[in-house]
Amino acid sequence: MRHGKYPFIVGFLFLPIVLYVGLVLWPYLQTFGYSLTDWSGQSQQMNFVGLDNYSKLLGDDVFLGALWHNVFLLAVLPIVTILIALFFAFMLNVGGRGGTGGVQGVRGAGLYKVVFFFPQVLSIAILAVLWQAVYRTDGSGLANGILIKLGLADAQHPVAWLSDPDLVLWCILGVLVWSGVGFYLVLFSAAMQSIPKDIYEAALLDGAKRGQTFFRITLPLLWETVQTAWVYLAIVAMDAFALVASMTPGRTYGGGPDHHSELMSTYLMRNFLAFGEAGYACAMGVVIFFFTLILSVVSLRVTRRERIEY
Amino acid sequence: MSTSIEKTAPVTAPERAGGSRPVSRTERFADSGGVLNVFSHGFLALWAVLIVFPLLWVVLGSFKTDAQINGSAWSWPSHWSFKAFGSAWTKGHIGGFFANTLIVLAGSLTLTMLLGAMAAYVLARYEFKGNRLIYFFFVAGAMFPVYLALVPLFFMVRNLGEISPLLGLNSYLGLILVYVAYSLPFTVFFLHSFFRTLPTAVHEAAMLDGCSHTRAFFQVMVPLAKPGLISVGIFNVLGQWNQYILPVTLMQPTSAGEADHSMLAQGLVNLALQSGYKSDAPALFAGMTIAMLPVLVVYLSFQRQVQSGLTSATLK
Lengths: 310, 316
Fold this sequence. Notes:
Distance between the termini of chain A: 43 Å
Largest sheet of chain B: none
Distance between the termini of chain B: 27 Å
Largest sheet of chain A: none
CATH topology of chain A: MetI-like fold
Oligomer: heterodimer
Strand content of chain B: under 5%
Strand content of chain A: under 5%
Order of helices and strands of chain B: HHHHHHHHHHHHHHH
CATH superfamily of chain A: MetI-like
Shape of chain A: globular
Radius of gyration of chain A: 24 Å
CATH architecture of chain A: Orthogonal Bundle
CATH architecture of the largest domain in chain B: Orthogonal Bundle
């Protein structure tokens, strides 16, 4: 029966491993090596420069600014998205009329879920182009159109949105929240549905209010899912390349106005493909890697709690 | 299920606690619930409008004229013509980009699922030296940001192009292989745990009947693993469809006159950048509509599977 086990194993593993090592692992390792050189990327010529690229990064104001913008997204995006998604998920699943004593969601919960989830299936580039049209700086953009209609903005001096240095990151954040809430709503909903209903009913009988049931029952039992969501949103915040690169003003890969929406990823791409600084770009890749690594370890540690079995 | 609870709960409430106090408590809950209900419905409806309105606005925009789009945001299309769709499809090359994306996705999805399932199955079901190590290496790759590999990957693919023109930069097959390689970690991780949960008895019976390892995999294990394959398949379709950084890096024409093999996402962004100069805004809006429609149709017809597939894939 065991005849031919090893040829079979090797046959099945060969192609996946070749592809994976060749196109994923090997480039990962190469990046560390290239980050120690002054390679331009145009020719094969390169010199070993030690940690020069990294000390250059420490003095590069644009890069440090980009780092802070990533930190800003990391701090704000997960909190805002998770709060909104949790609120909606609670409303949809257990927030319905409690007068009869039963635990149920509001009417039309299924329809809401379908609508809220939709941005998640749209390509991020479609979102970028769509929101670029919404954020147009004159009355032809939807955002300004609404504000002018409501009398909140002057038609002669509409909001500059993506061209406003103070607003541009918030605009990007808005798109990320807009598209992300639906996904986490569905994620939390699935987790909430696995919480036994009798726990809620017992709480209702004891006279718990809706707020109390949320904070004392739902949130503790959902903690692990919230943690997962946090890590995923952190990864989104570290990336956000497509939105910034295609929505914001800037010569190549956005980042404008005047680097006010620059992210580590856009600066990396510009250094690599536009400035011909492949070695320097590799050093940034390494920084992004360690940043992500530290971030996921820390967030898993900090948010760790006892697992509740039910 | 919820209706039966509704009916039984009012009966059990006074029974358990006894007396009139619990009744007043439930009433109080109902009162605050009424206010909250209006409140929560308001928020839910507002968010739904926030999602749907921009999308409808874009669809409407593809019927407007250039002057209307550059005028007030509230203008209504004066005549319903599909001219903009035609010019987006041909002049804007949306049709070509669409075909490019379908070709790449068809190839990459098939290969990802096939290779991912093969590797996951062998790693989950067969004991051999180095099994854990290989599994660990696959899973570790899922944690690394793609930016760490971007620069060497570009040159790796360029060098592949020197071996065969079928691979290399701006080639379908090159991009397919890259997509597959970067989808493998998660696919293997997900399917590995899935194959572990499947019963061993069916597989053993097939082997006793003289089935080969390969045949047992394709004819017994793959059909058994169908739910898992669908979940991770949906995850990969959306992931690869949404991919932006890889095609931007790898699918640029290396010399003038070379065919434009842009993916749909990339082509749309380029169209948006161009439309600033050429001022063909309706075509851009039409292009967006064309790019959104198939996704909308697929999503609406499979929304239950998409939602459950995506979320279960994430929670694994």
